[in-house]
Structure formats: structure tokens, C-alpha cells
Amino acid sequence: MLKTLLTGLALSLPVAAMAQEPAAKPQAPAAEGAEPAPRPEPAKPAATKAAPAEPAEAGTPDTQAPATAASPAPAEQPAEAAQKPAEKPAPFLPNLFDVTVVDTWDTLNVRQAPDGQAKVIATLPATAKGIELVARDPSGKWGKVNSGEQTGWVALRFLKQQTGVWQAAALPQSLRCAGTEPFWSLGATKSGLTFAEPDRPDRALQLRKVMDRGIDGEPTRGLIAGDDKGRVTAFLRPEQCSDGMSDRAFALAVSVILDGAETPSRMLMGCCSIAR
Q1: Where does the record place a coiled coil (predicted)?
Q2: What is the C-alpha separation between 212 and 29, in angstroms, rounded?
Q3: Are residues 154 and 194 located together in one domain of the fold?
Q4: Do the domain assignments include residue 121?
């Protein structure tokens, strides 16, 4: 009987153990199933979906960028460009000026240098007209003029430019050119030009053609003239020039070519002035 009881007890223990194992196994799959649960970290895609919010912010600067391009800066540039044409350019040289803004009893000082403290070497009357300006200082406030056989500087604020000195296809009536070695001269007249040399009769030339560069007020000129003895061709160009004999300054250089049946072909060099 006892043997039978022990045998039954021994058999019941494995059965109980077997009954408990299936209960433990479901826990293992439950634990394993808990690991995949983190996979729903598709919460990360949710963060990725939130990223489109950044393009929305980036789009805000994009919409602002055109606003920056349409800022007043571009509008200011045309305004400045519109002002530039309003600035009157400095006249070409040489050119003629009249003394102005000086009391009739006063005179305009001609100074040794472009400086208000420089030595006064000459004066111009308040009514002086047709003064030839041959150069400017870097500041644009002083102009070089001839006074007698010397040059000096005057304050440009006291000078007013004459109009119509250099007209298209024409010469100033005050034009005078000259050279040395040999001495010669060429001057404008109402009827044309006059060419002169020492010990020879003056030649009255018919002015056949005056050419310019097509720039308003620019003094470069090409001349063709002649008479029954031959032809005279001249080229005037704005350039600092010296006659080699005086301290006067010139702003026009000239090359003259003479040729013809009764005249040996030759070229002469010199300087020109339009002072009156």
C-alpha cells in the first residue's frame, strides 16, 4: 500500500512539473514579443514627418528673399545714376573763359601755384574776357592761364566758360599756330587761313575742309586748305605743348604738311592758341 502511494506520488510530481512548463513557456514568447514592441519606433518616422516643418521655415526665408531684392537698395541705384548726367562734365581744353563774380573795382589774382597762399605773379581785371585755360590742377579748383610771357593759376570759381568756342566742322576765329626752326605761323581768318614765313609773302589759303571727331566741344581738328601754289594740311590735337622759346603754356599741338608744284613738300611742328 505504501509502495503504491509512493509510486503515485512519484508519478504526480513529473506531471505537475510538466503542467508548470507550458505555463513558463508562454512567458518566454511574451518576453520575446516585448522586444519587437520597440519596433513601433515608427515614432521616428513621426519625427521625420515633423521635418517638413523645416522646409516650411526654409520657405519663409525664400519668400523673404524676393522682399530683400525688392528692397530700396536697387531703387537708390537708378536714382544715383539719374544724378550723374546732371553733373556737368569739365569742358575740353583749351577753352575760353570770362572773369566773373569779381567786383568791378577788384582784380583776379594769378598765382605762382594752385594754392591760395601762393605768390601773386599777375592780376586779371574784373572785366577780362576770352582768357584761355590750358590746364587744370588735380583738384579741379584751379586753372592754368598765360599772363604775358609766363603762366600762373587762377581760382576757377571766378571764371565762366564761353559757349560755342569749338563748333562742329569749324575753327575758332582766334586760332593761331606757330613754330620755330624755321619760324612760321598759321592763323584763321574770316575767309580761310593765312600761312606766313619770314622773307616770304603771306599765303592766303582757302579753307576747303574742317574735320572733327563728332564729339561736342572737343578740339581735335583736321584741316585741308590751299592756293594756286599748293596744298596745306594740318592736324590739331589737344596736348600740352611748348614753343621752346618762352615760358608760355599751350594746350594744342599741330602738325602741318605743305606740298605742291611750286612748293617743296615738308612737314612743320608747332603749338596753337585760341586766346583773344
Answers
A1: none
A2: 106
A3: no
A4: yes
Helix (H, G, I), strand (E, B) or coil at 183: coil
Cell of 158: 571766378
Most confident of the following: 73-77, 248-252, 259-263? 248-252
Mean pLDDT value of segment 141-164: 96
Cell of 8: 503515485
Range of the domain at 140: 95-161
Among residues of the chain, what percentage have pLDDT more than 70?
Answer: 68
Please provide the DSSP assignment of 137-163 as one string: -TTSSEEEEEETTEEEEEEGGGEEEPS
Q: Which residue has the cell 601755384?
A: 113
Q: Which residues contact 97 (CB under 8 A, 6 or more apart)?
A: 131, 132, 133, 143, 159, 160, 161, 162
145 Cα distance to chain centroid: 28
